[in-house]
Specification:
By secondary structure, the protein is an all-beta fold. It has a 4-stranded antiparallel β-sheet, with no helix packed on it. A 4-stranded mixed β-sheet has the order 10-7-13-14, with no helix packed on it. A 4-stranded antiparallel β-sheet has the order 9-8-11-12, with no helix packed on it. The model has no long low-confidence stretch (mean pLDDT 87).
Protein backbone atom coordinates (compact mmCIF):
# COMPACT_ATOMS: atom_id res chain seq x y z
CA UNK A 1 0.00 0.00 0.00
CA UNK A 2 1.53 3.38 -0.98
CA UNK A 3 2.30 5.97 1.67
CA UNK A 4 -0.10 8.88 2.04
CA UNK A 5 1.17 11.94 0.18
CA UNK A 6 -0.53 15.14 1.36
CA UNK A 7 -1.73 17.47 -1.37
CA UNK A 8 -0.01 20.75 -2.12
CA UNK A 9 -2.28 23.32 -0.54
CA UNK A 10 -1.85 27.00 0.07
CA UNK A 11 -3.53 30.39 0.09
CA UNK A 12 -2.83 33.92 -1.10
CA UNK A 13 -2.01 36.41 1.63
CA UNK A 14 -2.15 40.06 0.56
CA UNK A 15 1.17 40.75 2.31
CA UNK A 16 3.16 37.68 1.21
CA UNK A 17 1.54 36.33 -1.96
CA UNK A 18 1.00 32.57 -2.31
CA UNK A 19 1.88 30.71 0.86
CA UNK A 20 2.24 26.92 0.68
CA UNK A 21 1.19 25.15 3.88
CA UNK A 22 2.88 22.24 5.65
CA UNK A 23 0.17 19.57 5.74
CA UNK A 24 0.60 16.34 7.72
CA UNK A 25 -2.42 14.08 8.10
CA UNK A 26 -3.72 14.03 11.68
CA UNK A 27 -1.45 16.84 12.92
CA UNK A 28 -1.84 20.55 13.50
CA UNK A 29 0.22 22.55 11.03
CA UNK A 30 2.40 25.50 12.03
CA UNK A 31 0.61 28.80 12.65
CA UNK A 32 -0.19 30.88 9.57
CA UNK A 33 -1.36 34.47 9.23
CA UNK A 34 -3.98 35.63 6.74
CA UNK A 35 -4.83 39.22 5.96
CA UNK A 36 -7.30 39.83 3.19
CA UNK A 37 -10.95 39.71 2.24
CA UNK A 38 -13.42 36.85 2.59
CA UNK A 39 -13.61 34.23 1.40
CA UNK A 40 -10.28 32.73 2.35
CA UNK A 41 -9.51 30.50 -0.64
CA UNK A 42 -7.19 27.49 -0.60
CA UNK A 43 -5.65 26.37 -3.90
CA UNK A 44 -3.20 23.73 -5.05
CA UNK A 45 -0.75 26.39 -6.31
CA UNK A 46 -0.68 30.08 -7.19
CA UNK A 47 -3.72 30.60 -9.41
CA UNK A 48 -4.41 26.88 -9.36
CA UNK A 49 -7.68 25.04 -8.85
CA UNK A 50 -9.76 25.95 -5.81
CA UNK A 51 -9.62 23.21 -3.16
CA UNK A 52 -11.76 24.92 -0.49
CA UNK A 53 -13.15 28.30 0.54
CA UNK A 54 -14.38 29.64 3.84
CA UNK A 55 -15.76 32.92 5.17
CA UNK A 56 -14.32 33.76 8.57
CA UNK A 57 -15.88 36.19 11.03
CA UNK A 58 -13.72 39.29 11.52
CA UNK A 59 -13.79 38.66 15.29
CA UNK A 60 -11.96 35.34 14.89
CA UNK A 61 -8.30 35.76 15.80
CA UNK A 62 -6.91 32.24 16.30
CA UNK A 63 -8.80 29.72 14.22
CA UNK A 64 -8.11 26.04 13.78
CA UNK A 65 -9.31 24.95 10.33
CA UNK A 66 -10.16 21.27 9.92
CA UNK A 67 -10.24 20.03 6.32
CA UNK A 68 -12.55 17.16 5.37
CA UNK A 69 -13.08 15.46 2.01
CA UNK A 70 -16.24 16.31 0.10
CA UNK A 71 -16.48 20.05 -0.44
CA UNK A 72 -19.26 21.96 -2.16
CA UNK A 73 -19.44 23.39 -5.68
CA UNK A 74 -16.72 21.11 -7.02
CA UNK A 75 -14.27 21.89 -4.21
CA UNK A 76 -12.20 18.97 -2.91
CA UNK A 77 -12.56 19.85 0.81
CA UNK A 78 -15.01 21.35 3.26
CA UNK A 79 -13.64 23.28 6.22
CA UNK A 80 -14.77 23.39 9.84
CA UNK A 81 -13.45 26.53 11.61
CA UNK A 82 -12.84 26.29 15.37
CA UNK A 83 -12.14 29.44 17.38
CA UNK A 84 -9.13 28.43 19.48
CA UNK A 85 -8.09 31.73 21.06
CA UNK A 86 -7.28 32.00 24.79
CA UNK A 87 -10.46 34.07 25.14
CA UNK A 88 -12.55 31.15 23.82
CA UNK A 89 -10.68 28.29 25.52
CA UNK A 90 -9.30 29.22 28.93
CA UNK A 91 -6.47 27.47 30.77
CA UNK A 92 -7.80 24.38 32.50
CA UNK A 93 -10.64 24.07 29.97
CA UNK A 94 -11.45 21.94 26.94
CA UNK A 95 -13.80 22.67 24.06
CA UNK A 96 -15.62 19.43 23.16
CA UNK A 97 -17.03 19.23 19.61
CA UNK A 98 -19.45 16.58 18.34
CA UNK A 99 -18.42 15.68 14.80
CA UNK A 100 -20.48 12.48 14.79
CA UNK A 101 -23.46 11.97 12.50
CA UNK A 102 -25.78 11.57 15.52
CA UNK A 103 -26.35 13.42 18.81
CA UNK A 104 -24.11 12.18 21.63
CA UNK A 105 -24.39 12.16 25.41
CA UNK A 106 -21.01 12.98 26.94
CA UNK A 107 -19.76 12.75 30.50
CA UNK A 108 -16.25 14.01 31.26
CA UNK A 109 -15.55 13.92 34.97
CA UNK A 110 -18.68 15.42 36.51
CA UNK A 111 -19.47 17.59 33.45
CA UNK A 112 -22.36 16.19 31.41
CA UNK A 113 -23.80 17.41 28.13
CA UNK A 114 -25.98 16.37 25.24
CA UNK A 115 -24.43 17.58 21.99
CA UNK A 116 -26.22 17.64 18.65
CA UNK A 117 -24.16 17.12 15.51
CA UNK A 118 -21.79 20.09 15.16
CA UNK A 119 -22.47 21.44 18.67
CA UNK A 120 -19.79 22.07 21.25
CA UNK A 121 -19.55 22.39 25.01
CA UNK A 122 -16.95 23.19 27.67
CA UNK A 123 -15.31 20.82 30.14
CA UNK A 124 -13.25 21.67 33.23
CA UNK A 125 -9.91 19.85 33.12
CA UNK A 126 -9.23 20.71 36.77
CA UNK A 127 -11.47 17.81 37.84
CA UNK A 128 -9.00 15.24 36.50
CA UNK A 129 -7.63 12.90 39.14
CA UNK A 130 -3.91 12.20 38.82
CA UNK A 131 -4.06 13.70 35.28
CA UNK A 132 -6.80 11.24 34.28
CA UNK A 133 -10.23 12.47 33.22
CA UNK A 134 -12.89 9.77 32.95
CA UNK A 135 -14.85 9.96 29.68
CA UNK A 136 -18.13 8.30 28.73
CA UNK A 137 -19.86 8.72 25.39
CA UNK A 138 -23.23 7.26 24.39
CA UNK A 139 -25.24 7.39 21.16
CA UNK A 140 -28.90 6.54 20.51
CA UNK A 141 -29.38 3.38 18.48
CA UNK A 142 -32.12 2.87 15.86
CA UNK A 143 -34.57 1.87 18.63
CA UNK A 144 -34.05 5.17 20.49
CA UNK A 145 -32.03 3.51 23.27
CA UNK A 146 -28.76 5.04 24.47
CA UNK A 147 -25.78 2.75 23.88
CA UNK A 148 -22.39 3.33 25.49
CA UNK A 149 -19.62 3.64 22.90
CA UNK A 150 -16.70 4.94 24.96
CA UNK A 151 -15.86 4.43 28.64
CA UNK A 152 -12.20 5.24 29.31
CA UNK A 153 -9.73 7.47 31.08
CA UNK A 154 -8.04 10.25 29.12
CA UNK A 155 -4.66 11.72 30.10
CA UNK A 156 -4.92 15.53 30.41
CA UNK A 157 -2.94 18.48 31.72
CA UNK A 158 -5.19 20.17 34.31
CA UNK A 159 -3.83 23.57 33.26
CA UNK A 160 -3.94 22.91 29.53
CA UNK A 161 -6.18 24.26 26.78
CA UNK A 162 -7.65 21.45 24.69
CA UNK A 163 -9.92 20.88 21.73
CA UNK A 164 -11.58 17.47 21.96
CA UNK A 165 -13.14 16.08 18.79
CA UNK A 166 -15.74 13.31 19.05
CA UNK A 167 -15.97 11.49 15.74
CA UNK A 168 -16.72 8.19 14.02
CA UNK A 169 -14.11 7.60 11.34
CA UNK A 170 -15.73 4.41 10.01
CA UNK A 171 -18.04 1.49 10.76
CA UNK A 172 -19.75 3.03 13.78
CA UNK A 173 -16.45 3.07 15.70
CA UNK A 174 -16.45 6.18 17.88
CA UNK A 175 -13.20 7.96 18.70
CA UNK A 176 -11.85 10.88 20.70
CA UNK A 177 -9.09 13.05 19.24
CA UNK A 178 -7.44 15.58 21.52
CA UNK A 179 -5.65 18.65 20.16
CA UNK A 180 -3.55 21.12 22.13
CA UNK A 181 -5.12 24.58 21.71
CA UNK A 182 -2.03 26.28 23.17
CA UNK A 183 -0.12 25.99 19.89
Amino acid sequence: MPDYVPPTIGYVNMEEGFREMDVVEGQISPRYTYRGPNPLTFTDKMGGSTLATINLKPSMRQVLLLFFPGGRNGEKYRILPIEASPEKINRGQALVINMCQKPVAVEMGSDQMLLERGQSGDVRLSQAKDRLLHVRLAVKNDNGQWKKKIDEDMLVDKNGRLIILLHEPRNNQYRITTLDASI
